[in-house]
Amino acid sequence: MIPVPVLPLLLRERVVLVGTLVALIALSWLYLVWMAAGMAGPSGTTLAHCAAMPAMASSRAAYGWWLFVMWAVMGVAMMLPTALPVVALYFRFHHGRHPGVGATRPTLCLVLGYLLAWSAFGALAALLQLGLEHGRLAQPIMGQLQSRFVGGIVLIGAGLFQLSPLKAVCLEKCRTPLGFLMTRWRNGARGALVMGLEHGSHCLGCCWALMLVMFVVGVMNLVWMSLLAVVMLAEKVAPRGQLLARVVGVGLLVAGVWMSASSW
Fold first, then answer.
1. Domain residues for 211?
2. What is the pTM of this model?
3. Interacting residues of 132 by C-beta distance below 8 A, sequence separation 6+
4. Do the domain assignments include residue 196?
5. Cα separations in angstroms, 214 against 118, 141, 217, 218, 237
6. Which of 57, 93, 123, 171 has the maximum number of C-beta atoms within 10 A of its C-beta?
7. Domain tally for the chain?
8. Residue 102 has what pLDDT?
9. Considering the domain boundaries, does residue 1 fall inside one?
10. 3-state secondary structure of 176
């Protein structure tokens, strides 16, 4: 039972936290939509002159930074919604353990740690995209693989990972945030940051292969971005999420074999 004097603080902090998270997710999707619209560009223009593109032709480093920002924002837009169950549970746990003590700051530190893990993935994905484009294996900026055979191999690899024991272990950790909080709890803002990093690493281990599918369909393909985000959310919160992960794995295997075979 929450003491009556604590209720106003709890309600106020809940409104602030929910508003912050909703705004962060919404702004991330709006940025991606704006960026994708700029990439499409009006007829007769080049991608480098579109509104969403910085003046990055001056250096490869500027382009690499732009790619990192793109992947990092994708991490917020696609993955933060899947972390909301653990965020909400942490918020409730903190108020239960420390009645009358503000929980917004440590909860946001948890979110920051989670997003830092996905920002690290974003940095690696940006470097991978740079390498693929430099080797002319992927389209400039859009990042879509040029070879259907290579794209098929990526899908087969993602499908095999979906069916692997490592995927099952990481997904189970993401699906049971209560166990994570009870066994890995750390006090304070710094402890929350570490917890966020740890939970983010579990989520990264669960979803990295699905994120790489974006190289097959086009990194800024908003339809596939939304579809994959829904799949990853459903894997974590749906009653039979583990079964869904295996079904998706089989589907990726079939699509990968077909794509590779049709490239000959």
1. 6-262
2. 0.89
3. 138, 143, 145, 215
4. yes
5. 15, 13, 5, 5, 22
6. 171
7. 1
8. 76
9. no
10. coil
